[in-house]
Amino acid sequence: MIPHATFPVERWRVRETALELDLLHEAESIFALANGHLGLRGNLDEGEPRGLSGTYLNGFYESYPLDYGERGYGFPEDGQVIVNVTDGKIIRLLVEDEPLDIHRGRLEHHERVLDLRTGVLERRLQWTSQADHTVRVRSRRLVSLDLRSVAAIAYEVEAVGQALRIALQSNLIASQPQATPSKDPRAAAALADVLESRLAIAHDLRVVLAHRTRRSDLMLAAGMDHMIEHDGTRYTRSQAEPDMGRVTIGVRLEPGQSLRVVKLLAYHWSSQQSVEWLRDQVDASLGIAVAEGFDGLANRQRELLDAYWAVADIEIEGDDEVQQALRFALFELLQATARAEARAIGAKGLTGNGYDGHAFWDTEMYVLPALTYTQPNLVRDALQWRHSILPLARERAAQLGLRGAAMPWRTIHGEECSSYWPAGTASMHVNAAVADAVRRYVLATGDDAFERDYGLELLAEAARLWASFGYHDRDGRFRIDGVTGPDEYSALVDNNAYTNLMAQSNLRAAVAAAERHREAAQRLGIRSAEIAAWRRAAEAVYVRYDEHLGVHSQDQDFTEHDRWDFERTTPEDYPLMLHYPYLQLYCRQVVKQADLVMAMFTRGDAFTAEEKRRNFDYYEQITVRDSSLSASIQAIVAAEVGYLQLAYDYLAEAAFMDLRDLTHNVRDGLHMASLGGALMAATCGFGGLRDYDQRLAFAPRLPRALQRLRFPVVFRGRRLAVEVQAEAATYRLGEQDEPLEIIHWGEDVALRAGQPERRKIPPAAELDPPRQPPGREPERAQRRLRIAAW
Question: Which of these is catalytic: 364, 488, 530, 723?
Answer without folding.
Answer: 488
